[in-house]
Amino acid sequence: MPPFSEADTRIYRRDVALGGQSLSATEREKLLQRYLPTPPSGFSQKDSQLPNTSQRQTSKGHRRRVRPFLKSKLHFLVFFLIQLVFGIYIRLRQIYHAVVYRLLGIRHHHHRTPEYIQKDVQNLDRIPEHLSVILKFKAEEDGGLEALIDEVAELCAWSAAAGIPMLSIYEKSGILKTYMASLQELVKQKLSSYFGAPPATPTLRVFAPNHPSMSPSRTPSPQIPAQALAGGIYGSNVATGRAHLDLLLLSATDGRDTLVDLTRTLAEMAQTQKLRPTDITSNLINAEISATTAVPDSRLAHGDRPAGKEVDAGEPDLVIVFGPVVKLDGYPPWQIRLSEIFCVGDSGGDVSGSGSTRVEYQAFLRALWKYAGANFNFGR
After folding, report:
1. Which of 59, 115, 124, 248 has its CA 20 to 30 A from that of 27?
2. What is its EC number (predicted)?
3. Whose CA is closest to 135, among 364, 329, 378, 338?
4. d(C-alpha 162, C-alpha 367), whole Å
């Protein structure tokens, strides 16, 4: 390539100084043509007519706008297909569970008859001595407090018929503790609708941590001797003894708040030298925390406990979560260290995708079946 001549250099610089107004585009091309390298053989004049700078910039800007647009549409299509596939799968699973559990509910319906419930559980290897259920307080349009109390009453009747001597109900807000007297009366009415008039109706005791217990009258019935009243679990023959059910009401204040209060109390006692730090052991903490939910004057016989399970009477053997997912919702953590947890799942016959799960007998029965077939491994 030959060097630039002084004349061409002056002409080019003058054109640049004037902002490209001195020379036209054709004149500038002619000015630079002699300094360009020789084109390869076979390169025609038509091929040399490349688009100008503005055209190249327009084409490049067009590509910069089109490619992100196509990429975003591709991502949207992929995400839509993934959502569609999983949506169809979840909906089919809900429909399948709704149909299966509805058929199960039709086949194993209690008909408000304790004998049917006993027949459903008579072949189980074990029955929980303490059953705990996690319920949610629904909105007023879903029944509110009335629906919640009715669910508790149904669970009490099913538990008494299945031979479960203790039932604890966890509801986060603790509204059930405010209506303990009304709850006890409604539960008694529900038990009477299942078992009939006394003495066939099981006795009931309702209590809650830091609340006075509401115990039934222990006066023996003239049809049943006093020795029979001291009996344990409900049997197929009511003449062998009147069944008894303990109902424990729990809320969120019995969990985290109890741990905080116990920690504060032990720290204050250690600071005032009423308690040595070496005396604060796991056994002491276990005894203090378990005392808040333990049954006062418990009727649970230690000899009837499942083999190998050394737990306090206040610790549930089985926890049923009536919800689509396992959500303990603030349940007292210390009391469920060795508990079997059963989640009902998306069963309630509602395929609309709502998060509420109804309390149904078939779910209660499935939980007992799972508990009877569970393997318990206890370490040291």
Report:
1. 59
2. 2.5.1.87
3. 329
4. 12
Give CA 179 to chain center in angstroms.
26
Residue with tokens 């080019």: 12
Query: What average pLDDT is seen over the chain?
Result: 78
pLDDT digits (tens, 9 = 90+) for 240-256: 467 889 999 999 888 77
Residue spans per domain, the chain: 1-37, 108-254+294-372
According to CATH, the topology of domain 108-254+294-372 is Undecaprenyl pyrophosphate synthetase (3.40.1180)
Tokens standing for residue 377: 């491994």
**Amino acid type, 44:** S
Q: How confident is the model at residue 111 (pLDDT cuts 50, 70, 90)?
A: confident
Spatial distance between the Cα atoms of 254 and 326, rounded to a whole number of angstroms: 20
Q: Residue 169: beta bridge partners? A: 133, 249
Q: Are 355 and 324 in contact (CB under 8 A)?
A: yes
Q: Cβ-count burial of 11 within 10 angstroms (0-12 exposed, 13-18 middle, 19+ buried)? A: middle
| Distances in whole angstroms, Cα of residue 80 to Cα of each of 27, 63, 73, 74, 90 | 57, 26, 10, 10, 15
The strand order across the sheet containing 244-250 reads: 203-207, 244-250, 166-171, 130-135, 318-321, 340-343
DSSP string, 153-193: HHHHHHHHHHT--EEEEEETT-HHHHTHHHHHHHHHHHHHH
Confirm if 22 and 14 have CB atoms less than 8 A apart: yes
Question: Helix, strand, or coil here: 134?
Answer: strand
What integer pLDDT is reported at residue 209 of this predicted model? 82
CA–CA distance, 380 with 374 (Å, rounded to integer): 20
Owner of token pair 């002056």: 10
